[in-house]
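haha ok so turns out i had the wrong file open the whole time. this is the CORRECT one, sorry everyone. sequence first:
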Amino acid sequence: MAGRRRNERAEQVREAIIQAAARTIGEKGYDKTSIARVAEEAGIAHGSVYLHFENRQALFDSLLPTLGRRMLDFIRRRTRHTRTVLERERVGLEANFAYLSTHPHLHRLTNEAEFFAPEAHREFYDHLAEGYVRALRRAHAAGELPGYTDADLEPMAYMLMGAREFLLSRYCVTGTEVRPLPQEVERIYMTVVARALSATTPLPDEAAPSPEHAADALREAAETDFGRGVGG
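then structure:
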């Protein structure tokens, strides 16, 4: 009994540290988040943090896996019973933005993790993309997404993820505040997604330049413009 109470207390302290670190990063950024500042925010002794995390980096590395997983679990629970890929996208989008609006520190925590906790950042986005691809594959197997192949689904997942990121930054984030996505923006997003995912237009035919050739031509043009300078 005493051992269980100790474990529960330890979990409570660890959770307090994680939440305090997340709030501090959300307000001040990783670079200004110290162990001392986290301890003060959590209302615990400085040394107590080191009973749970070896150092500041270990704390940083644990934040996105812990808090990001909770957000993904929240989204997953709300999309579990959706019947079509478009319904899942709409419900998932709304759940994603609703969660961020009530946990605004996650936006900065996630973005800055690319530089301050890069491994955790990469693993989080890999995990997010894997879940997206699995859902798209289920839809594809059920006859949705006409005109697309299995190889198209991973790039599709990253495009949808990227669109969400930019919509969040443009329409929802002001300082440390995150608002839900405006209804009109959601309507436009879902209209574009619906048309794209139900498209039956074939991909570019063999007469079109190969991707490699097109990319080489664009790189050459970009290098020429760069050498010319902005003024041309």
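The chain has two domains: 1-53, 56-205.
again sry for the mixup
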